[in-house]
Amino acid sequence: MTTKNMYGWWLIAATMLILPGCNQSKREETSMMTTTQINKPVWQVLEKTRVVFGHQSVGRNILSGIERLASKDGVKFDIHEQRTASATQGISHFPIGNNGDPLSKIEDFAAAIDAGAAQNADIAMMKLCYVDFNAATDARQLANKYISNLESLARRHPETNFVAVTAPLMALQTGPKALVKRLIGKQPSGSVDNLKRAEFNTILRERYASTGRLFDLAQAEADSTGQHCRVDVKGQTVEALCPELTNDGGHLNERGQELVAAAFLNFTSSLVTQQATR
Hints:
Layout: H1 3-18, E1 26-29, H2 40-46, E2 50-55, H3 57-72, E3 79-81, E4 90-95, H4 102-117, E5 123-126, H5 139-156, E6 161-165, H6 176-183, H7 191-208, E7 214-215, H8 217-223, E8 227-233, E9 236-239, H9 254-276
Helix pairs in contact: 2-9, 3-9, 4-5, 5-7
């Protein structure tokens, strides 16, 4: 190895020792609930509620978390996969479209709903996936398409409450590769994609947060550990999936599944209760 190469490797090693935390997500304290406990009144509301859920893999992660929470509480909660109208309470779910093609998901969900999947349902929601966003994504155009589709469905099926879902996130790439990328002026993997997800999510929050018709999945992934996970991307600070909640940077591990599932269940119960009192 030449002296020049040895110097380069020593420089990288020294930088790693001096800046041990530079490749980690920012964390700020947050007041968001971090418990996976579901109170009995919440289960009682959910047992009388019909939810339709279009999704892909992170959606399955959430449903796995719901199944474990119900089992821990000794609750029989029905979760079934079907694209037709459900005759029972619980969650009726089905995969939509193709990963990497968000428009196919929006269109497929609409087709399933119009074919009767949400008949007699109290709530219907669909989520995109983190793989539906990349550096080339026009996040504003995609958000407008998502909103337009959801509102059109709400007009065609007024008996069902259509809920928007923010896009799930990715954890910031860490380790030596991420550090080297920063040293040469590049963004670690997932950073720019999270910027696009953040733009999409901001538009959904502006449209739906005040209506109560928003399940903020991204916030649950960033906040539910008790920390507020953030990453700086091109001068902006955006949400990131907390690394404690994933084993591969995008899908939820068991802890992540249960924390996000608890947020999903509490949100759904609260929405149904609010609607009943209006």
